[in-house]
Structures are given as structure tokens and as C-alpha cells.
Known about the structure:
Helix content is 30%, strand content 25%. The strands form 4 sheets. Strands 4-3-5-12-6 form a 5-stranded mixed sheet, covered by helices on one side. The mean pLDDT is 87. The chain has 3 domains: 12-43; 46-112 and 214-241, D-Maltodextrin-Binding Protein, domain 2 (3-Layer(aba) Sandwich), CATH 3.40.190.10; 117-205, D-Maltodextrin-Binding Protein, domain 2 (3-Layer(aba) Sandwich), CATH 3.40.190. The relative contact order is 0.18. The protein is elongated and about 95 Å long. The protein contains 6 helices and 12 strands. It is of the alpha/beta class and 244 residues long.
Amino acid sequence: MGQRLVERNRHVIRLSDAGEHFLPYAHRAVAAAAEAFDEARAMRLPLRVGFTWNALGKDTGPLVNRFEAEHPGAIVHLRRCDDDPLAGLTDGRSHLAILRSAPDGDIDFFRFRDEQRVVALPLSHPLAGSGTASLAQTKDDPLVVNVISGSGTPCLWATAAPGRPVVEVNNVDEWLEAIAAGRGIGASTSSTATLHPHPGVVYLPLADAAPVSVLIAWRSLDSHPHTAHFVAAAKRWSRSRAHE
């Protein structure tokens, strides 16, 4: 640099005037380097994507593969977090979450696609051999509800009689077994019929029920450097499949 930054003798070491002038720049350079190293380390941390009972069905693998190909070094970890309605966003287990109900609070999200409603019936149900079902046909049946993250709540049946029996469960496995055992019926989405077949359960389209939106959500202040990249990739994927 052509300047003496430190003056020292047998008794003291101190910055020269040039050193005093240079010190703030040195601090900024060190901080910038540390930030760059932290960013580089963060880029190598797996991006955790949580889900409760279904991820994105047939789109999950291709989307993850496309994202990782577009961002060399990025790794996506898919996590089932069925004890949290926000699929791990609540406690930080997930950087992003695949949800089927709109979240509250400081959560951003976008609609990835819609899925058709289905009703899940035990084999013994009178409608089990039908090709479709309606809300009116199923409004008086006992209802099995996943109270943690399910989308088939009693309010779906606006005309159901008060006091309808409700069987509460905590995850999709309990939900399926309760229905198969004849404890009641359940409502879910078309991806559940694909991803969670059961020999004791029949899925039928609920012809008169509104579809369910599949959402990709993340915390507004998420610090993982790949969160925004994954969201952008998912939006592109969603648009490309919109007319299929």
C-alpha cells in the first residue's frame, strides 16, 4: 500500500494515522468476506420442503429434479410434518411447505394448482359401487376428520344436521384406518386417492364440492438463499402445467 499502518516500539503498538483511516475499510472487508462465506455455506444447506399428508403428487419428483438441475449444488429434502398444520414452518423444520389451506400470519404463499374433492368411503357403504357421490348423499354419515391438517371438515356440508358424529384423528394413516373400519366417511382431494390407496377404502369424486387449492408457502423472513429460487421454479412449473 506504500503506507505504514502500524507503529510500534519496545513499549507500544498502535495504528498510524494511515492505519486509523484504513481500519473502517478493513472492518467492512472482513465483514463482507464473512458474509460471503456464510452465504456459500448456506447455499450448501439442504432446502427443507415440508408437507402434511400429500406433497405435489406426480409433480413432486419432476419439479425437485428440475430445480436441482437449474441450481447445481442445491439439495431438496422433503419432510412429512403431519403434527403441524403448517408442515414444519411453525418451528423451522421446513423452509417451505406444501399446504391445502391458506395460512395466517407472516406466511407468504401462492396457488400451485387446484385438486378435485373426493369422498372416501368404507367398502360397506351403500355408495361404494357408484361412480360419483354428492354432498347431499353423504351429509348424514359420521365424518372422520384429520384435526391437524385435514381439509374435509364438517363445514364442507352446509346442510348437514346439527350433532353429526365426528371421529377425530391426527394423521392420514389414522384417517384411512378409521374409514376402513366403518367409523365414518372422509373428504379429501384427488391426490389422496392416488397417493394413499387402501384395500378397505373407496374414493369417489364429490361432484358438487368446490376444488381445493394446493399452496406452496414460506415465511416472509426465511433466510435460506434457495427459498426464492424454489418458489420461482415452482411458479414456472405451475404455469407450464396450467392447461394440461
